[in-house]
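Journal club prep — side note

Before the paper discussion, L.F. wants everyone to see what a predicted structure for a comparable chain looks like in token form. Sequence:
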Amino acid sequence: MHCCTALVTVRRVTPPLRSSRELRLCTCDVQRCEAMCCYDGAYLDPQEERFLHELLAKVPQLRAQLPDTYVVDGYWNGESLGRKTATRPHEYRNPRFPAHFTRTRCVFADAIGFCTLEKFARSRGQHPWTFKPSVCWLFPMQESAGKPEAPVADARADPYQLPDYPGYATVVGCGRHDPAGRPWAKALAGERAWLAQVKSLPILGSDGHSVDELLAACPSADAPAP
């Protein structure tokens, strides 16, 4: 009697990419995530860089907390991506901090992770994003021609991937899909509303948003330091 062994070929089925309609996000919790999205600083438009230099020259308490060089050249995979805010070492305690991220954080972040530019605006009773670069308040939302677009919905579609770098937007707390979260458009309602009232990007330094205009809009000589 002969025994025959059947060879069964198992095909691995790759699930389809998650669509933006399926993407659900949780609200940003800086104290929990420690602002991990800011680990590499924030990329700036040339207009935004000029704005920051002027703002810091006119608001000494903001400048005092920064290193001598607070804007540097930024690179990705050996190629220049433009100018960005500098970083300083930070020892993250968050157990979900991505292993492929460097343990650094934007120099504009305070000890907890809150943005000092945002804290400055709040101390003056202005919108929290009044002095923030576009890339900061938009994230993780994307935009095209001034219109909101969904964040990257699937890790496999994350544009920032290398063999030793498995993504950026899809691995941080505010950009990572979470079944317990809300549909992205609701989770990022504030970002969508702020973008809707913008004539063009970047906002900082544009008509009505110059340093002098924004500081004069809500003068507060006794505002507390951020």
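L.F.'s comment for the group: Residues 24-214 form one domain. Keep this in mind when we get to the figures.
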